[in-house]
Amino acid sequence: MDELLRHDDMSFGGDDNGSRQSAVKVLKEKYLAAAERVRACVTTAKTKLGEAQVPIKVTHAAARIKTAVAKHPVSPMLYVAVAGLIVGAVIFQSTYIRAYAVQVDGVEVGLVADTAQVDAAVSHVESRVANVLGTSFDYDAEVTYTPVFSTEADLTDTQDIEAYLFENTGALMDGYVLTVGGQEVGVAASEADLQALLDRVAEPYITEDTVDYGFVEDVSITSRQISSDTAFDLEALYSALTANSVEEAVYVVEKGDAFSRIAKSLGMTVSELSELNPDVVIDKIWVGQELVIQKSVPFLSVYTVNNETYEKAIESPVEYTDTDSMYQGDTKVTEQGEDGVARVTADVTYVNGYETERTVISTTTLQEATTTHILRGTKEKPRTASTGSYSWPCSGTITSRYGYRSRGFHTGLDIAVPYGTAIKAADGGTVTFAGRQGGYGNLVIITHDNGSQTYYAHNSSLVVSVGDKVYKGQTVAKAGSTGNSTGNHCHFEIRIGGKTVNPLNYLG
To answer: pTM of the predicted model, to two decimals?
Structure first.
């Protein structure tokens, strides 16, 4: 700087000292003012960029300029120009940094200070895509860089560049995943497609009375990146959601139910339902009894809530009158009342068409019920009175069951026992036959109080006579092999209304 001052001082010539001094004075003032403006610019730059960003020598340079002008009142224009260049260079260096414009397939996506940032973003995108696809993935777009100067404020966040790269791989697309009970079951191109599919699954269960519906399992639809090669098959997804599996369940017998009607309602035969319930007497089921059943259950279960209005019978109330003219347990209706009628409004919940819950909202009586009057016996029953149930006549091996066999229809049970085994009355009653009868051999017939009859055949001997009153468990004969028989056994029959029935459905 001093050399420049000396050089410029020597190059300024002229003979007129007065004029020279006057001109120098004016220029000196102008140049000192310029130096102050340089100082002000430096101060402003330091304020904007931060004290640390402007080297302290700039301030010193401005001071030196001012000193030099004071000492050397010559060629100030040169000093001002040099100072301007110095200040401009410092300000530029403090403001701008070397950066790179990033282009992906010719499209500029941002500015970075280091190309390694983009390389790391590409690597991360490849890993993310590979995780979605379940296989390795190489990002094949052309990434180029152009050197530029930029402020730090204009640099692009690397995460923004990565987001652009991820969205433009061409390997992925937006998809929607259907999850049922925590299990992913399929994907579709839009949430609307999956919702329409769910509505289709529920549609068969919806009626004009339905006020609400949904699904028993947790169902969710979520958005997710999926392979762009994904094929959407909504029909296959529908089939998966409605596919049936057979599971065991329990049916509770209600009033008015019959075994055969229950089987039919479940799409089963009586035999199939009976096999699931081997200990159940099909002709003697009761309200509240639980039957094992099989029913088809879809993968996705639909529940509906229906607001239903219907008429329901109001059972006739019963009034009992005790009498000692009848045995205990015996009853006689003296006046039959009539059931009433009520209109009921209820919210009924169904799962896959089967009722699971009923909440009565209101009940209106349309017709009052009238009372039924019944006489109830109090006299103690004799030992020989019928109980209404049947016990086994003997203990042995069943050698032939009720039903068709090679030699025709078998009307009872054959129970093999040793010769002379005691044959006992299955229930109390009156002996109405005791003697030999055709293929039955030695036969005992007991008529019970309800009109049913039990037969005991092929006996070696009889120990009762016609007209005898016998009690349940009383010995009535001794086992043998008389009549059409091939070995010692008891042929046992139960007849109701004069017709044989399967004893296994009645024996306790």
So the answer is: 0.48
